[in-house]
Amino acid sequence: MNEWISSSPSNTWKIAAEFFQTLELPAVIALHGNLGAGKTCFTQGLAQAAGVKEPVCSPTYTLISEYQGAVPFHHIDLYRLGGPEEAYDLGLDEYLETDGITVIEWAERAAELIPPDAVHVRLQRGDDEQIRTIQIIENPL
Ligand SMILES: Nc1ncnc2c1ncn2[C@@H]1O[C@H](COP(=O)(O)OP(=O)(O)OP(=O)(O)O)[C@@H](O)[C@H]1O
Ligand SMILES: [Mg+2]
C-alpha cells in the first residue's frame, strides 16, 4: 500500500503506525505538505508506533527533538531553518546517520542533506476539512 485516505487526526496516527511496520530501520522519513497538512500529526503516530511515551509536539524554536522509544526517534522540523549552512551547524548530517528513525518536516529546506535512501511521504488536504491523502512518493528533492 502506498496511498491512504485519512478521515481524521486519529486515523492519520493509525495510518502512520501501519506505515511504520513497513519500514526497515534505520530509516529517514521526509514529510512533504503545506502548513497544516498533518506532518506533525503523522509524526506523532510514528512516534507512538516506535514506542515513544512522551508527547511529541511541534516546538517553536527547537529544530531537532530527540525521543527514546523502542528505538531512538528524532523529529526534525526545518520550517525555520535559515539556510543550508545552519543545517550543518546544527549537526543535522549526524542525526541522519544514527540508528532508529529520523522524521523530517520541510526537508526541502536542506535538500542536499537528505540521504538518497530516505522515504518520502506527501500529505495533502482533501476537499473536506478532515480529509488528508497520504502517499509514499518518489524523491521530489
Ligand atoms: N485527517 C487529518 N489528519 C491530520 N490532521 C488533521 C486531519 N484532519 C484535521 N486535521 C488537523 O489538521 C492540523 C494538522 O496539523 P499539523 O501540525 O499536523 O500540520 P503540519 O503539516 O505539521 O503543519 P506545519 O507545516 O505547520 O508544521 C491539526 O490541527 C489537525 O487537527
Ligand atoms: Mg508540523
UniProtKB/TrEMBL annotation:
<dbReference type="InterPro" id="IPR027417">
    <property type="entry name" value="P-loop_NTPase"/>
</dbReference>
<keyword id="KW-0819">tRNA processing</keyword>
<dbReference type="GO" id="GO:0005524">
    <property type="term" value="F:ATP binding"/>
</dbReference>
<protein>
    <recommendedName>
        <fullName>tRNA threonylcarbamoyladenosine biosynthesis protein TsaE</fullName>
    </recommendedName>
</protein>
<dbReference type="GO" id="GO:0002949">
    <property type="term" value="P:tRNA threonylcarbamoyladenosine modification"/>
</dbReference>
<comment type="similarity">
    <text>Belongs to the TsaE family.</text>
</comment>
<dbReference type="GO" id="GO:0046872">
    <property type="term" value="F:metal ion binding"/>
</dbReference>
<dbReference type="Pfam" id="PF02367">
    <property type="entry name" value="TsaE"/>
</dbReference>
<keyword id="KW-0808">Transferase</keyword>
<keyword id="KW-0963">Cytoplasm</keyword>
<keyword id="KW-0460">Magnesium</keyword>
<keyword id="KW-0067">ATP-binding</keyword>
<dbReference type="InterPro" id="IPR003442">
    <property type="entry name" value="T6A_TsaE"/>
</dbReference>
<dbReference type="GO" id="GO:0016740">
    <property type="term" value="F:transferase activity"/>
</dbReference>
<keyword id="KW-0479">Metal-binding</keyword>
<keyword id="KW-0547">Nucleotide-binding</keyword>
<dbReference type="GO" id="GO:0005737">
    <property type="term" value="C:cytoplasm"/>
</dbReference>
